[in-house]
Write a structure and sequence with these properties.
This protein is of the alpha/beta class. It contains nine helices and ten strands. Strands 1, 2, 3, 4, 7, 8, 9 and 10 form an eight-stranded parallel beta sheet that branches.
């Protein structure tokens, strides 16, 4: 991961996205809410071969080893943690990253993961919304207290100076899109929608955002199964500013040398400008 990040930074890629699950509930029965390129996932999203990492710990190393690469969680499962703990780690990471960190958040879909950690699955949406409110208060550096349905505490102060952490909200369903339009600084598509699906989702979330006249336009991010320059250009032609390419399309080879060479070649084909 660290070598991938360093080469991507040198080659002119804009950002690195890392998802998360805390653990693998063996033999879980939950279904992922999205489809992969219009086709139902043929295998579990998490299985015994999946190498699970903590994205924020990883990003601390990435931030120290890169100069311009943005780092983003796609997505971080906010309801599984107390928001004050999340506020502390994200504030620290943003300082290490020099403002290059985006917090992509989601409510979660894997019921068994919630069960193991003792968090009621049915409360995940409410916990997410309260957590975002608390995070922004904590990042403001102001003293504050909170009395919500899921979180309640007396007056605290998290930081001595304000910290700016953009929040990118994931999800493709109508409620998730409306929530992103109302509460997010950006939106990240769940799974890998087809091009036509991505265009429709982008249109929907942009329309919903426009209803909030006091808020700026959303940054929108969508994954693509393609990796060619033409694949990326057609998203730009459809109004997208950010396209995320799966790393296994670009970081290919048995050795580090082969993977590095393939990523550099891919950057050339995509027309990226290398950093100097």
């Amino acid at each position: 991961m660290l070598e991938l990040a360093k080469v991507a930074d040198e080659c002119g890629f804009d950002g690195l996205w890392v998802g998360e699950h805390i653990l693998n509930p063996v033999d879980y029965g939950s279904d992922h809410p999205s489809e992969d390129g219009g086709v139902e996932l043929a295998r579990p999203v998490i299985d015994k071969s999946t190498e699970l990492i903590d994205p924020l710990v990883t990003f601390g190393a990435v931030a120290a080893a890169t100069a311009r690469l943005r780092i983003a969680t796609g997505v971080y499962l906010v309801p599984l943690r107390h928001p004050l703990a999340t506020a502390r780690v994200t504030s620290t990471l943003q300082a290490l990253a020099g403002g290059r960190f985006l917090l992509g958040v989601g409510a979660g879909w894997l019921r068994e993961e919630f069960d193991v950690l003792g968090i009621p699955f049915a409360e995940r949406i409410g916990r997410l919304e309260e957590a975002l409110d608390i995070l922004r208060k904590a990042w403001s550096a102001e003293e504050f207290s909170y009395d919500g349905r899921y979180f309640s505490f007396d007056t605290v102060q998290m930081n001595s100076e304000p910290v700016a952490v953009p929040v990118v909200m994931g999800g493709n369903g109508p409620k998730a899109l409306a929530r992103a339009a109302r509460m997010g600084d950006g939106w990240f598509a769940s799974g890998t929608p087809t091009f036509d699906e991505a265009v429709a989702l982008h249109s929907d979330v942009s329309r919903l955002r426009a209803m909030h006249e006091d808020l700026p336009p959303l940054q929108c991010f969508v994954r693509t199964n393609g990796s060619s320059r033409r694949d990326v250009e057609r998203y730009a032609e459809a109004g997208f500013d950010n396209v995320v390419i799966w790393a296994d399309r670009l970081w290919v080879g048995r050795s580090l040398e082969e993977r590095t060479a393939h990523l550099r070649d891919s950057a050339e084909r995509l027309g990226l400008a290398r950093s100097k």
